[in-house]
Amino acid sequence: MTERSFFAARGRVVAALVGAGLLLSACQGGSPTPGDSPSASSSSASPSATATPTPSAKYVPASAKGKAQNVPVPVKPALADQNSKAGLEAFTTYWFALLSYGYETGDLTAWSKVTSKGCAFCSNLEKGVNNANKDGRWAVGGKFTLPSVKAEYKGANPSQQVVIQVIQSKIEYFKADGTTLREPTPASNSGSLIVARYESGSWSVVDLGLL
What we know:
The chain is of the alpha+beta class. The chain has helices at residues 3-8, 85-105, 109-113, 120-132, and strands spanning 138-141, 144-152, 159-168, 171-174, 180-185, 188-199, 202-210. It contains 4 helices and 7 strands. Strands 2-3-6-7 form a 4-stranded antiparallel β-sheet. Strands 1-4-5 form a 3-stranded antiparallel β-sheet, with no helix packed on it.
């Protein structure tokens, strides 16, 4: 698929990529970070006779009892900034990890930095996530898994495409008082396409669609 034909098909972009409920203004929540997302490397502390380990806050996933706590922030791998096929694929995985983090916590700050303001679907997605986490609401489930990430990399092109299989688990929604907000969103499995652009030493997503 050429970039021209992809943008011509933008009208077919739907919310199934991130679960049918994600774009409904009052019915969204967050999902755990994908299991294959990058994790921070541990660093060694300087030797000290009086130094004691600082315990890390334990990650508690969301449940019917409450919101997730101490959600690990996805760490960007160095490879994700390379202008190459492997770099683009690493970036795509990282982008979805940030999306999952935002979906679970309501914080899309890092995700927004690698997402073009011109991506209309992404802007709607951001609004949905913000609505999902206001007034004490939360969601359980919705984890992203990417069984297949294949970049159609062509070095001479300013924009590149990535074909992805995106699986998202079932999502349950809760109000601040712990009661159910709405019916769960079923799990989804879709073929999707990301268009990314490499500028100033890093990638950003400029459009997103369903295949």
